[in-house]
């Protein structure tokens, strides 16, 4: 197993030659363990919009399975597709609670956003947008996603906590859960450095076992005692419950646009960032089978509205499996298939606490930092926009915010330094969408 950062730059076929079925299966398991939190987190958020928890859980599992399967079989890329974090928050707190629309209408808006995605994908507009991203911004986005993943890991472990004075601060090691996370982080790092097969999976398993006594001895989190039975029947009550006609009211077009814009740049930045970090690129440096991946993402969003959940998107946590050595669609197939049993075995999710998957997320962030070495930091016209994209992704807790300000600053720098000819015509359209997103 090699670190992402240690992979030689080579076209896709060379990367594929470095893998095998055993590695891909372990990578799929690792990716699933890093993304499985969405099975319970997504219903927890969308249930606040008035949707039944069990119905959203079923929709989440089905969407994650079907979309990841398509990503593996059709696009042949090692990326899990599932309901997107941030998109589910927009669905609940902006569309339903903020604008006062019904959850059924919001699901209809998700469906129509997916249809628009499909049109853009079939016309190759989305892939053209990817190719408009300047390479320094690509490198910065990759590293920014890495920092974002690490932040999520530290937050899940409660190692980084809110502080009313300093905004955030580090927790004390006297907390048994934090100490368990630190030990898991160090153990996983050592296993990776020693090239132990399945290092990330082993780290997650050992950290989970180490976390079991916490509640019994210190009154903290104990995964096993959270079980409420072993088998739970799936709830298909949200299947086809969307309001297609109501969602087409002209007053709701801003909602559809917001879904389109957010999912568009989240998916693009994920494809670009992960491909750049893992060398899953072609001879021109473009992500492999980009059109198929974008089409899969579009289908996932359309399917989300039909199933009863927020839009689906490619997950940045897929980098966990790529760090484990996953390079082909088999990784996505394995990860997606592992979602399916939780239609009936959802209580088993409580076995793996957040502190067990957090070390993997933190270490993946480290793997994804190497692309910033390709940025010419002596050229301020490239370095400053790249820096904004890099830091704003984790600082704003939004991939979209980082890429928006990266685009806008790239254009503004060239506009006011007499280098307008360096701005592609299509980038002006992207900038206009960025401005609209800031005003919406």
TrEMBL record:
A Pfam family: Xan_ur_permease
Segments crossing the lipid bilayer: 25-45, 51-72, 79-99, 105-125, 137-161, 173-193, 200-218, 252-274, 328-345, 385-408
Domain of life: Bacteria
Coiled-coil residue windows: none
Compartments in which it is found: Cell membrane
Key word Amino-acid biosynthesis present: no
GO MF annotation: an example: purine nucleobase transmembrane transporter activity
Protein name per its UniProtKB record: Xanthine/uracil/vitamin C permease
Organism: Fibrella aestuarina BUZ 2
